[in-house]
Amino acid sequence: MTGKESCTMDILQQFPAIAEDARMLWERTDHAELSYAAIFDRYGGVKSGVGENRLIGGDNLAVAKTLLAGIRAGTQSAIHLIYMDPPFFTKTDYTSVLRISAENGHPEEIPLTVFSDTWRDVTADAGTGLSRYLTMLAARIIAARELLAESGCLWLH
Hints:
Elements: H1 3-28, E1 35-41, E2 45-47, E3 54-57, H2 60-73, E4 79-84, E5 92-101, E6 107-117, H3 130-147, E7 148-156
Parallel strand pairs: 4-7
Antiparallel strand pairs: 1-2, 1-3, 5-6
């Protein structure tokens, strides 16, 4: 068995634990205060107020928990389309440079990590982080399924 086949078998054997960890992560997630960045209606474009087709900013798992509470309370409709574009497990830190004016008039450059697509397992010997990544992804798929209408659709990139 090659190293790649061994890793695949290890993850398959871990999958029941990964699924359970994802379910527990979803259940432990707290509600979020929703911040509506923009709201679109069918005919007039962007408008203010709470309505259909919202674009919401926030931690997606916490936002999902809040939206689900509204669905269960009957104050909100189930969702008809969810598009998910998760990180791709690239094991890379993505950086940018912030340029600010310094007192001497010369711009100062400050490197920033804008997103870290690195995942580390809790166990010291695992190293790859694949199980942690899959737990994160599975928790969000569980959340999405809870939010979908019966005829809803989940698009996973």
